[in-house]
Specification:
heterodimer; A: 397 residues; alpha/beta; Aspartate Aminotransferase, domain 1; seven-stranded mixed beta sheet; four-stranded antiparallel beta sheet; 11 helices; 37% helix; 14% strand; B: alpha/beta; Rossmann fold; six-stranded antiparallel beta sheet; 14 strands
Chain lengths: 397, 362
């Protein structure tokens, strides 16, 4: 694997099945770009006219343009850099909602969506409807969203793919329903970005939030919120205010994208890495990467179907999934199974609730959770063999 | 009229120390030095209660007692400051010790801190202290105290006991070998029996702590030269006492701590990690890396003292009850071959660390 840095952990090559938490390894070009930027151009962008500041600003512009192209945003200024997916979601939720609004969301959501909404609901700022999914398909039915809409519904907030089950969600029809009812549509693309194309304009998405460190293969500390042309600057309040460079005489945040929502010095070093990562993803092709992850998942699903002590949640095929799969093993708590996979086989997986407690309630795995296996673009067939052998040994012990 | 009788009349606050001051190596001067001294006692169990008791009564002016545990009925056999009423009142050990000792000697200051001493807080706890005292039940904390002692140049006194055996040693930084000169690193988890699996006799704990307390009195009364430079060791059941000469250990050991100034426990490098796990009420304890694999058979035998352990080739499980009344916790320990453990039934990292120290040992 010449593309990636060869890494070992305590002498063992880690077999990494925790890409849904953050992808690993990263393409070697990511570390190189960060290192070069740090060495040469790491001035504060947009705050001065000297050559290094200009170089930093140009780098930001370039990556902003790459991201805008990636999600078909109408203009790069509608790409707001954030420190992660959670940050991007908070910018959207706290910026778009007003007192008395009704919000429709789902039980598949990560805590980065459900916690801010639940908190706003508990203090009486908004009202909230949480639409459940079928535990068989692990997909939200758009008709259930339609039934939850009220005249006061101002936002539908939904994930593009479940971080617990990997199942892709019908965002385009749900976006259409939201727009038919005059509501905005916020999509959490944490698990799908880099694998499944999103066209924010065509797919009725008004705000698309994602981290840079998962499917985009960038470093942690990066992310973005991409706004559609339907959102005007005066419709979103800045959730954080501060220095933006440029017009410092204005007593409040400048009412133009992206500065309105980007107070503070951005994570330039991380964004330089993210830029290189997007180039890598574009070169390889998201659909190719998704096909690879599905092929890996198919191999895993077929092998563990023969192990009677292993229970698989959600559809038994990889067709509607991004690279994530939840299982349990009879006789072991998820935490124990994960500890054994790491301790005896150097295999990294994530046990527990995956910050998505409502989804686990629906599939009946609350509060212990499941073992989540999430392959990535660099997962090999050998990795799967080792995983399957390990699961067989554990289930048979 | 002897000096101490004169003091007795002119300074009644010293009256209680009359018999101690009559001992010529202490005298009035030594007593004043004790009054001015500040001691950090880490751990208030079998060793710690005896240490606190002896030092408070002897007039050590400022005693800081750190312990995170609450009193349980199995403590009463050897932990001399506690009784049934303390258990009913749900008192932490540090508070109960302070209460008892304030009654015994209201003239000194006692600070009771309910906390787990760790690399994150021990430097703060030890501010301005003249001596560090070991009342702990685990090697990781002892190495932490050792690092701190060598780093800040403040002596500490090691003490440990199990069954009818005991070990104790003074560490005088820059002068005597440190604990890492004697034992290079903390033993791997599960290698040594613990008081909670192999038992301990009260008199053995009492002897170790009394030895430590006397050494502390030497140091704090200005008699550092009189302190022991040996490793004190005994097995009372076998009627054996030894003073091991460890003077050369420092040259031989090429010690990372006192020769090279690498404080691997204090920096957190060798610290065990605790992670509150996502999902049901569970904490993972990950000890410092070790190449020794856990022997499940041996641990299973040891754990039969507290529960019904079961194991396969990957893990050992044992359910048990920790604490009583409001503090009762139904816990389950799952131990893996590299020494990591999941303590189910709590989100309290300190409790999980304590359970690990008691039943696995580190």
């Amino acid at each position: 694997m010449a593309d990636v840095i060869d890494a070992t952990h305590a002498g063992l090559r880690a077999i990494y099945f925790d890409n849904a938490a953050t992808s690993w390894p990263k393409p070697a070009c990511v570390a190189e770009a960060m290192s070069l930027f740090l060495a040469n151009d790491a001035a504060n962008p947009g705050r001065a006219g000297h050559r290094m500041a200009v170089a930093a600003e140009k780098m930001l512009d370039r990556v902003r343009k790459s991201l805008a192209d990636f999600v078909r945003a109408s203009e790069p200024s509608r790409v707001i850099f954030s420190s992660n997916g959670t940050d991007a979601l908070n910018i959207a939720l706290k910026g778009l909602l007003r007192e008395g609004d009704h919000v429709v969301t789902t039980t598949l959501e990560h805590n980065s969506v459900s916690r801010p909404l639940e908190a706003m609901s508990r203090r009486g700022f908004i009202t909230l409807t949480r639409v459940d999914f079928s535990p068989a398909s692990c997909v939200i039915d758009p008709d259930d969203i339609r039934r939850a809409m009220t005249p006061r519904t101002k936002l539908v907030a939904m994930t593009h793919a479940s971080n617990v089950l990997g199942t892709l969600q019908p965002i385009e029809p749900v976006g259409k329903i939201a727009h038919d009812h005059g509501a905005r549509f916020l999509v959490d693309a944490a698990q799908s970005i880099g694998l499944v194309d999103v066209d924010v304009e065509a797919m009725h998405v008004d705000a698309l939030a994602f981290p840079g460190h998962k499917g985009l293969l960038g470093p942690t500390g990066t992310g973005a919120l991409c706004l559609s042309s339907r959102i005007a600057a005066e419709q979103i309040l800045p959730f954080r205010e501060g220095g933006t460079g440029g017009d410092s005489s204005s007593p409040t945040q400048p009412a133009v994208f992206p500065h309105l929502l980007e107070g503070g010095t951005p994570n330039t070093v991380g964004i330089a890495g993210l830029g290189a990562a997007i180039d890598f993803v574009n070169a390889r092709g998201p659909s190719q990467m998704l096909a690879h992850e599905r092929a890996i998942l198919t191999k895993i699903l077929e092998a563990i179907a023969a192990l009677p002590k292993i229970r698989i949640f959600g559809p038994k095929s990889a067709g509607d999934r991004v690279g994530a799969l939840s299982i349990t093993i009879d006789g072991y708590s998820p935490q124990e199974a994960a500890a054994i996979l790491d301790e005896s086989f150097a295999i990294a997986v994530r046990p527990g609730l995956h910050c998505a407690p409502y989804a686990h309630r629906t599939i009946g795995t609350f509060p212990d959770g499941t073992v989540r296996i999430s392959p990535g673009v660099f997962t090999t067939s050998d990795d799967v063999d080792t995983l399957v052998r390990a699961l067989g040994e554990i289930a048979g012990a | 009229m002897s000096e101490s009788k004169a003091v007795h009349r002119s300074q009644p606050e010293l009256a209680r120390y009359n018999r101690q001051m009559l001992f010529s190596h202490v005298g009035v001067e030594g007593q004043r030095k004790l009054r001015a001294a500040r001691v950090l006692l880490v751990g208030c169990g079998a060793l710690g209660t005896t240490l606190a008791n002896l030092l408070a009564r002897a007039g050590v002016g400022h005693l800081v007692i750190v312990d995170r545990d609450f009193i349980e009925v199995t403590n009463l056999q050897r932990q001399v400051l506690f009784d049934h009423e303390d258990i009913e009142r749900n008192l932490p050990k540090a508070f109960a010790a302070k209460e008892k000792l304030t009654r015994a000697n209201p003239e000194i200051e006692i600070e009771a801190i309910v906390a787990d001493a760790s690399h994150a807080n021990i430097e703060k706890l030890a501010e301005k202290t003249d001596l560090l005292l070991d009342g702990t039940d685990n090697f990781e904390t002892r190495f932490l105290i050792n690092d701190l002692s060598v780093k800040i140049g403040v002596p500490w006194i090691y003490g440990g006991c199990i069954g009818a055996t005991g070990l104790a040693m003074n560490v005088l930084p820059k002068e005597t070998p440190c604990l890492r000169c004697i034992f290079e690193t903390a033993p791997p988890p599960g290698m040594n029996p613990t008081c909670d699996t192999a038992g301990v006799l009260g008199p053995a704990a009492s002897i170790v702590a009394s030895w430590q307390a006397l050494e502390a009195l030497k140091l704090l009364s200005g008699n550092r030269a009189a302190m022991s430079r040996a490793l004190f060791s005994f097995d009372l059941w076998e009627n054996r006492f030894q003073q091991l000469n460890v003077a050369r250990a420092k040259e031989v050991a090429d010690c990372p701590c006192c020769t090279h100034g690498e404080y691997e426990y204090l920096s957190g490098k060798f610290a065990s990690a605790t992670t509150v796990l996502c999902g049901r009420n569970a904490v993972q304890v990950t000890p410092a890396p070790s190449t020794t694999k856990i022997d499940f058979e041996r641990i299973a035998v040891a754990l039969q003292a507290v529960g019904n352990p079961t194991h396969n080739k990957f893990m050992l499980k044992c359910a048990f009850i920790e604490g009583t009344g409001d503090r009762r916790n139904d816990l389950e320990l799952t131990l893996f071959a590299d020494g990591r453990a999941i303590v189910k039934g709590t989100n309290d990292a300190g409790l999980a660390r304590g359970v690990y120290a008691k039943y696995v040992g580190a």
